[in-house]
Amino acid sequence: MYENIGAKIKGLAKVIAWIGIIGSVITGIIYIVMGINSHYGGGALIGIGIGVMIGGALSSWISSWVTYGFGELIEKTAETAKNTEKLISYSSLTAKTGNDKKLKTLLSWKEGGLISEEEFEMFKIKRHHLQEPKLLNGDIHERLRDLKNEFESGEITLLEYDYKRETLLDEL
């Protein structure tokens, strides 16, 4: 009964418009016939009949636009809600998959000594909700490895190492 209500409202708008148009034409014809059959000069009734036919039909048609537009609005809103629901379910599936990949990448970085246990836990808490799997970016992995090698070879200080590593990890 309430399924596809937008299309039903649009259909009702069309029916009401046609009833109004047909009713206006019939009423106009009645006035014109009364004017023709009048013994006292029916010019005014004929004019009223033509006005009712044209004005009534036109106003019925124009007034149906509001009801039809409302039905269209309901249809489009229902369509948008349906598409949004599909998008949300797809997005949550993608996010879950991406988060699993991120956690695996972080774990491999921790096991490889590129990040500490504390950093691993921080990123698990802080970054698990990100939707794009940026952690899979091999460039960041390589840059972390190169940074660690620079520190271990003495090319940069501990302060520089911590700052650059934090900057790289913030890119995730």
Label this structure with key terms.
mainly alpha, 172 residues, 5 helices, rod-shaped
Give an overview of the whole structure:
82% of the residues lie in helices and 0% in strands. The protein starts with a helix and ends with a helix. The protein has 5 helices and no strands. The model is unreliable at 128-136 (pLDDT under 50). The chain is an all-alpha fold and 172 residues long. The chain has one domain (5-136).
Distance between the termini: 51 Å
- The fraction of residues assigned to DSSP E strands is under 5%
Q: How many helices in DSSP terms? A: 5
The average pLDDT is 82
Sheet with most strands: none
Helices and strands in order, then pairings?
Layout: H1 5-37, H2 43-111, H3 117-127, H4 138-152, H5 158-170
Helix pairs in contact: 1-2, 2-3, 4-5
Briefly, what is this?
This protein has 172 residues and is mostly helical.
